[in-house]
Write a structure and sequence with these properties.
Layout (H helix, E strand, L loop, with lengths): L3 H6 L6 H13 L7 E4 H12 L5 H7 L11 E3 L2 E6 L1 H15 L4 H10 L6 H4 L5 H10 L6 H17 L2 H9 L4 H22 L2 H40 L1
Antiparallel strand pairs: 1-3, 2-3
Helix pairs in contact: 3-5, 6-8, 9-11, 10-11
């Protein structure tokens, strides 16, 4: 029986374009993505292109060392180092964003690597969470809470702020019992009913379409303005050259 390390060593070695084409072809045929090996230098170049961070082989070796322990080590094959594509691309990218993008401490990163669900890592990779969110998740994920709990809590906080005025909240807080909690929960549930009606009515789609159209117009105006500025600069340079 082969060990997991041996299984990885037996994977085919490919260049990045070959690996991408291989995965795309398998997906088009309805097959699982499969795995291939990328040489260390190819893997580093791919990571830099995808993440925008300066990545070195030495950095990856440091992160995968027993002392740091943020990443699984490279696969050794024929005396060279290889990384598994596509599995390790997202894992390493996740760590790079946490360390180089958010500058989180190593302890928090280890906890997030261990407990952050793989199907939610895009929230980190796309920088949709704040540093405070990530530090909170590093504490609560090991206790059995989920990323969805944080998202729901933030959404509820926004609903409460929108529907429950400070004066009403203060009055509820001074009443005996759990008046404030009940007032907040009532505000959330009322807003959920409004949200359901808002989405069902098609108003959300009209609002989003309007926003997208405005963004497109702004982009077009910015490009036009940039083109005019470039044209003026070139004309000024041409006049200067004629003198």
């Amino acid at each position: 029986m082969t060990t997991p390390d041996k299984d990885l060593e037996n994977l085919p070695v490919m260049k990045v374009p070959e690996a991408v084409d291989s995965i795309a072809k398998r997906r088009s045929q309805g097959l699982p993505d499969g795995k291939v090996l990328l040489a260390e230098e190819d893997f580093v170049a791919l990571l830099e292109a995808l993440s925008g961070f300066t990545v070195t082989a030495r950095l990856l070796r440091t992160y995968s060392s027993p002392r740091v322990g943020l990443l699984p080590p490279a696969v050794k094959k024929d005396g060279k180092a290889y990384y598994v594509y596509p599995d390790q691309v997202e894992t390493v990218g996740f760590v790079l964003v946490l360390r180089l993008g958010y500058h989180l401490p190593l302890g928090a990163i280890r906890g997030l690597v261990k407990h952050f669900p793989a199907d939610r890592r895009h929230l980190v990779l796309e920088r949709k969470l704040t540093i405070e969110d990530l530090l909170e998740l590093a504490k609560v994920l090991p206790r059995g809470f989920a990323v969805a709990d944080l998202v729901m809590a933030k959404t509820c906080d926004l609903m409460v702020e929108d529907t429950l005025s400070s004066s009403k909240a203060l009055l509820a807080a001074t009443e005996p019992g759990e008046a404030l909690r009940k007032a907040e929960e009532a505000a959330i549930l009322n807003r959920l009913d409004e949200l359901r009606d808002w989405v069902s009515s098609g108003r959300r789609q009209r609002f989003v379409a309007r926003e997208a159209a405005e963004d497109f117009r702004d982009l077009a105006r910015n490009r036009l303005a940039a083109a005019k500025i470039v044209k003026k600069v070139l004309a000024r340079r041409a006049r200067g050259a004629r003198r």
